[in-house]
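Researcher: I'm preparing a figure for a lab meeting and need a structural model of a single chain. I don't have an experimental structure, so a prediction will have to do for now. The sequence is pasted below. Please return the structure as tokens so I can convert it later.
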Amino acid sequence: MLATWWAALSPAMKLLWGITLTASLIFIVQTVMTFLGADADADFDVDVDTSMDGSDLSNIEGGSNLYTFRNFVNFFLGFGWTAIILRPQVQSTALLVIIAILVGVGLVAAVMYLFKWLSTMQQSGNINVYKSAVGCQGKCYLTIPGERAGEGKVQITIQGAVREYNAVTDGDAIKTGTPIKVVEAVDANTLLVEGLNSYII
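Model: Understood. Here is the structure written out token by token.
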């Protein structure tokens, strides 16, 4: 029955279903890894020469980065399921695409806001970042430009919990996935870090 249903789909619908199911599976894996305290995004983060990893254009609401693998997954999750569910009701393909895009963008915005709120709640607890973060080690989450030319993100283990902070460095750029050490707390949300090695294994 499944094979018959799949064979009856148009090439466009097969592509849409493939993207949607892939995005759904990745979303589930990311969600499970996030609640387990693992890094579900850094290893898949876009890190290309077009400055998608840390440019000013991508810094939204206190440094939350728009161009991450997680956000692309969230967009296609919202876009795909909206297009599939509404396809029988919306006859206009153009209107269907517009609605699906709006839902996808809305889902990305909602998840970014949720993670920012959770991060704020975490960091507003008992931790004194000025005293507790210095010396902690972790991993670069989003590439940090060199010579304090911009901010990236790091995840560090502090008081037994994995927490995310904005980060700058005085040295060369630190790529996503590179182990780091906290040198100083610039402010309550930003750390000065240094890379522990110059390459990613």
